[in-house]
Amino acid sequence: MLAESFPQAASRHLQDAKILLDKQRWDNAVYLAGYVVELLVHAMSPSVRETARYSEYDEFKLKAYQVFTENYYYENNEVPNLGDDEAPFTPVKLPLQDGLQGDISLFIRDENDGEIIRLQDLINLMTNEDYQTIAKRLCLRLNKRLNKIEEEII
After folding, report:
1. 152 and 109 within one domain
2. Structural domain range at position 134
3. How many domains, the chain?
4. Alpha helices in the chain (DSSP H)
């Protein structure tokens, strides 16, 4: 998919997610909304080559900082330091996972042992430390609990 088509695809899938949501097909709507987020991240993210990875990350972080300071802080608000790794504008690095590329079936396709192992590997990839970091940051921003065991974040 070309970078120019990411926003168009995201818009199209967002409309589909809204239709599913209106029809109370919650799981499908949430899944499609997640795909919309992925497309938007691809649209915002620079292409990454091994040799340029760190400078592109710094450029992306600076751009995110600029967008946040221009749109999410009032003049009288204190803007966090660009070096603050916990600030809302600080990107979370997600390493490329081969197991998360392509068309991924999140449902059991048949009852063999290989299918159970495939799903468990997929669950492990999607719940690893990198994705837990994103979940924790989202919960902090939304003032929500990560799960029922942990205390509510205040």
Report:
1. yes
2. 92-154
3. 3
4. 6-22, 26-44, 53-71, 113-126, 129-142
pTM reported for the whole predicted model: 0.42
Structure tokens at 35: 């795909």
Q: Are residues 34 and 66 in the same domain?
A: no
- Cβ density class 71-105: b for 16+ within 10 Å, e for less: eeeeeeeeebeeeeeebebbeeeeeeeeeeeeeee
In a shared domain, residues 26 and 54: no
- The first and second tokens of residue 81, run together, are 């330091």
Are 85 and 39 members of one domain? no
**The two three-digit tokens of residue 86, written as one number:** 């916990």
- Determine the angle formed by the axes of helices 6-22 and 26-44, rounding to 10 degrees: 160
Q: pLDDT tens for residues 53-91?
A: 667 778 888 888 888 888 877 777 788 888 887 777 777
